[in-house]
Design brief:
The chain is of the alpha/beta class. 52% of the residues lie in helices and 11% in strands. The model has no long low-confidence stretch (mean pLDDT 92).
Length: 196
């Protein structure tokens, strides 16, 4: 998804393989540092790559899903569908001085999700976001190890980071069972490390 046309190719491959899509879950992301005192080229490259993967590719896939569901409905098929965007607690809490771009990309994803929910609910297109804190994936493990995991865990009242299955459970609920009236909802999964 770092390629500006990657999301388009992914969508086309999914349609070719499946014929139709009912649910889109955007769960790709990068969490790569860029220092405030980095050279301008490195600064722009870091921001550009993060925004492309974390936000633009997700927006491109949301756009294709909405157009697909509209077309399907216009052809007499089942209109509507569901989008679940995996954002981050950083969308609300912010992040480290080396990760402004990550926080901004995830805040953009939450704003995009709410806009889709408000703009397309009448067409049966529902949108939800999940905002995990640290989740025990390779990305989080490396960061925890590099930043002194015990200090970071002390900031999580639950005393541990989320398990990927916990995030998956919330995403599956939103994708399959959540009532339509929940469209636009954001679910936090962060062990109470940030409570809105």
């Amino acid at each position: 998804l770092s390629d500006p046309l990657g999301a388009e190719r992914l969508w086309e491959a999914a349609i070719e393989r499946l014929g139709q899509v009912d649910v889109l879950i955007n769960n790709a992301g990068v969490f790569e540092p860029v220092a405030v005192d980095a050279g301008l080229d490195d600064w722009h490259a870091g921001w550009g790559r993060t925004m492309q993967i974390n936000l633009q590719a997700s927006a491109d896939l949301c756009r294709r899903a909405i157009l697909h569901w509209r077309e399907r409905g216009a052809q007499g098929g089942t209109g509507g569908g569901r989008i679940v965007n995996i954002a981050s607690r950083a969308a609300y809490r912010g992040d480290s001085p080396a990760h402004w771009h990550y926080a901004a990309s995830k805040a953009g994803m939450v704003g995009m999700t709410k806009s889709i929910a408000r703009g397309f609910a009448r067409e049966g297109i529902l949108a939800f976001a999940v905002c995990p804190g640290f989740t025990m994936t390779g990305m989080a493990e490396d960061y925890l190890a590099s930043r002194g995991g015990d200090k970071l865990l002390a900031d999580i009242p639950l005393g541990r980071v989320a398990d990927p299955a916990e995030v998956a459970s919330a995403a599956a609920y939103l994708a399959l069972e959540a009532p339509a009236s929940m469209t636009g909802a954001v679910i936090d999964i962060n062990g109470a490390s940030f409570v809105r």
